[in-house]
Amino acid sequence: MLNIFINLTRYFFLLCSFYFFYSSIKMHKALYDQDDHNIAFYYNAQRIVILLSHFVGFIILVLTKDNTLDLTILYIEQLLVFMVIWGIISRFHYGTNLLLWNISLYFIQISYLILTRLDYGYGVRQFKMVVLGYVIALIIPKIFHKLTFLAKLEWVYLVLSIGLLVLVNDTINGSKNWMTIGSFSFQPSEFVKIVYVLFIASFFRKNCDRIKLLISGFFTAGLVLLLVFQKDLGTALMFFVLYITLVYIQTNQPLLFIGGLTAGSGAAFIGYKLFAHVRVRVEAWSNPWADIDNKGYQITQSLFAIGAGGWLGTGLSKGLPNKIPVVMTDFIFSAISEEFGNLFSIFLIAIIMFFFLTAIRMCLDVKDHFSFLVSAGISVIMAFQQILIIGGVTKFIPITGVTLPFISYGGTSLIASCIMLGILQGVYLNRKIINEDDEGE
Questions:
Q1: C-alpha torsion 11→14→16→19, nearest 10
Q2: Half-sphere exposure of residue 235: CA atoms within 13 angstroms, side-chain side
Q3: Which residues make Cβ contacts (< 8 Å) with residue 170, sequence separation at least 6?
Q4: Could you tell me if 248 and 254 are in contact, meaning their C-beta atoms sit under 8 angstroms apart?
Q5: 261 vs 53, more confident
Q6: Could you tell me if 7 and 315 are in contact, meaning their C-beta atoms sit under 8 angstroms apart?
Q7: Could you give the CA distance from residue 143 to residue 191 in angstroms, rounded to a whole number?
């Protein structure tokens, strides 16, 4: 009977993902048409989908695991936090972009289910980080548009970026970019991404002449090189793509973008020749089957899991995702594909893309240039990070070691994602205030 129930829930989760994507399209249109009726309807419909998906998932976990009481308490705590977050949004943040809040919470409930299914302890720790992250995310929108001095701190951002990366003192999973204080460890590079965006936005807020391009280019190259030495290849690549994208947005000169890509390709080739850990990543990607028990083990297990899931998945708790190394961080997407199915994963990718498109649409409407560049930079970070992890686990590109925002396990990554979400909402709120002032004039 339990197996029949789990098999049926595969269709339920797929239907939820499809409707959430469909309702995101409708709600996006309603937001920009200022259709309050449809905004409220689809906002509440998405909340119901999140709650139902969360509820059904925890029923499966309770029925398939031994710690029934602990899981029940965890479910109730998570449910209460969902309700509190929505209550605060309705009371204090109804002028923000409600769709972005709901998409992030949909990702969070997926994270709850898959992480708790993999390891109850990790699920509990992730829940605690969610609480902290959303406290921060809910505070930022109300203060971001008031802190006008943030646009004038470019040199502070520059020094802070370098300082955070230089002061790392620990190596975890081969990466030398961790800072450990007592029993607490975190990755400064996750926060440096945000500080770097603030630097570029502040530095280019008035103009982007040759001197500024040279200064920012040398600074970015230094950060990228430092990250490569720390074996944080994903973040290094992200900084490079972020820089050339923001420079192109600022200057509207395709030659600069093409030149940046050419220089980056040359630097990547040199890095491949100079750094052994870069060669290992590329070789494992190009032919993982040649060394399936060693260098290629991660990617082959990921591909096996995705293939085993098929279109509909094995069902929550019915797969073997624990066979994938670092499944809760770098390879979380593979675990989702195995147990929820490839169709579910396709809709998940579509929702991720819609998050990015919504954020881009927001920044196009911003009149303050600093806020415009900040929101554009954050949009690029979140989109490219998702491309890197999904491309890596499916063997489209080499594995880079980045995490899936709001879904992968990791307190630093989750809090950084929540900060970026809060900033996007602050920019959206600022856009509405400026537009209302213009209409008043």
A1: -120
A2: 26
A3: 176, 178, 179, 180, 185
A4: yes
A5: 53
A6: yes
A7: 19
Residue 134 · residue 102 · CB < 8 Å: no
Question: Could you read off the pLDDT of 300-330 as tens digits, one per residue?
Answer: 988 899 999 899 999 999 988 888 888 888 8
Sign of the Cα torsion 335, 337, 340, 341 reads: negative
Spatial strand order of the sheet with 175-181 comes to 170-172, 175-181, 184-186
pTM: 0.92
Going from the C-alpha of 13 to that of each of 16, 197, 276, 306, the distances in angstroms are: 5, 36, 43, 17
Q: pLDDT band for 34, please (50, 70, 90 cuts).
A: confident
CB count in 10 Å sphere of residue 49: 20
Do 103 and 405 touch, CB atoms closer than 8 A?
no
Q: How many CB atoms lie within 10 A of CB 270?
A: 11
SS3 per residue for the chain = CHHHHHHHHHHHHHHHHHHHHHHHHHHHHHHHHCCHHHHHHHHHHHHHHHHHHHHHHHHHHHHHCCCHHHHHHHHHHHHHHHHHHHHHHHHHCCCCCHHHHHHHHHHHHHHHHHHHHHCHHHHHHHHHHHHHHHHHHHHHHHHHCCCHHHHHCHHHHHHHHHHHHHCCCEEECCEEEEEEECCEEECHHHHHHHHHHHHHHHHCCCCCCHHHHHHHHHHHHHHHHHHHHCCCHHHHHHHHHHHHHHHHHHHCCHHHHHHHHHHHHHHHHHHHHHCHHHHHHHHHHHCHHHHCCCCCHHHHHHHHHHHHHCCCCCCCCCCCHHHCCCCCCCCHHHHHHHHHCHHHHHHHHHHHHHHHHHHHHHHHCCCCHHHHHHHHHHHHHHHHHHHHHHHHHCCCCCCCCCCCCCCCCCHHHHHHHHHHHHHHHHHHHHHHHHHHHHHHC
Give yes or no for a contact between 100 and 425, defined as CB atoms under 8 angstroms apart: yes
Tell me the C-alpha distance between 273 and 260, whole Å: 20
